[in-house]
Amino acid sequence: MPTTLLAFLGACTLIAASPGPSTVLIIKQSLHSRRSGFLTVLGNETGVFIWGVVAAFGLTALLTASEVAYDVMRVVGAVVLVGFGIQALRQARRAKGADDGVWEGARKSGWHSYRGGLLLNLANPKAAVFAMSFLPQFVPEGAPHLPAMVGLAALWAVYEVGYYGLYVWFVGRLKSVLSRAGVRRRLEQVSGGVLLLLGVRMALEG
Predict the structure, then answer these.
(1) Of 48, 51, 195, 203, which is the most exposed, with the fewest CB atoms less than 10 Å away?
(2) How far is CA 129 from CA 2, 39, 64, 187, in A?
(3) Where does the pLDDT of residue 108 fall: very low under 50, low under 70, confident under 90, or very high at 90 and above?
(4) What is the pLDDT of residues 20-54, one digit of tens each?
(5) pLDDT of residue 180
(6) How far apart are CA 197 and CA 205, in angstroms?
């Protein structure tokens, strides 16, 4: 069991280290504040746990079995990504670098940040399919399948909270540099552009 858990956590590290939409959104929100960034992480990891539970009950197989269902979810995910990208670009454009240094995104509620992380994860069909293929590989032989899968999903989510929390902390450490309106505006433009491109790619892929 300890060997299995070590292998599982190692795999979780590799997954988290692979750049994707969630990473971009977490960094983007962390530019506003640590609170915003951390709540985005919590929202994202809630989505990870939900997909893990769905996979444990075998419901993800329904998504992979239906090409129509997968395509619908893929288009929805693409719309969500494009929406986040456009929102970031609009925020960068409206940024005026006010004297008090308050960035527009920092005024938004914690629920907005949490909801953003959750929505981005749940709208990604690849996250659902990946959970279905990833978690069963680490269920110990002879262990009850459902409790083991749910437990691994919870461990995966908690571990990534800690991992992505380091991103939030690191961005916070660079606050003296990132607090400059011009720097934040440029980073907002970059993150918005990346999210927009990821959304377009998801929409076009088969």
Answers:
(1) 203
(2) 26, 25, 7, 31
(3) low
(4) 889 989 988 888 889 999 999 999 999 999 999 99
(5) 66
(6) 12
